[in-house]
Write a structure and sequence with these properties.
Distance between the termini: 74 Å
Number of strands: 2
Radius of gyration: 26 Å
Strand order of the largest sheet: 1-2
Number of helices: 4
Structural class: mainly alpha
Length: about 90
């Protein structure tokens, strides 16, 4: 009985297939990241964290924590009177 080696795709064919898959992924349009819910609630008008907490049904402490993160990312700015406004 003669042993035949298992058939494997040629290395070049494997490379071409992998390259094709990479190109397909690169050509796919990138999805826009979902907007932060706090930014959506804030809009582009100045708002107080208490009103945002009420609108989002979240604790005020959580709103302040999220606003701080967004401020550090330069996405919101603190205004006089404790209000915040979206920058970007």
């Amino acid at each position: 009985m003669q042993h035949t080696p298992p058939e494997h795709p040629a290395p070049q064919a494997v490379r071409n297939t992998a390259q094709h898959e990479e190109n397909a992924v690169a050509a796919a349009p990138a999805e826009q990241p979902a907007e932060h819910p706090l930014l959506t609630a804030l809009g582009y008008s100045p708002a107080h964290p208490d009103s945002l907490a009420q609108a989002l049904n979240l604790p005020t402490a959580e709103i302040y924590a999220q606003l701080l993160e967004l401020e550090l990312e330069n996405r919101v700015a603190a205004l006089p009177g404790g209000r915040y406004q979206r920058v970007k």
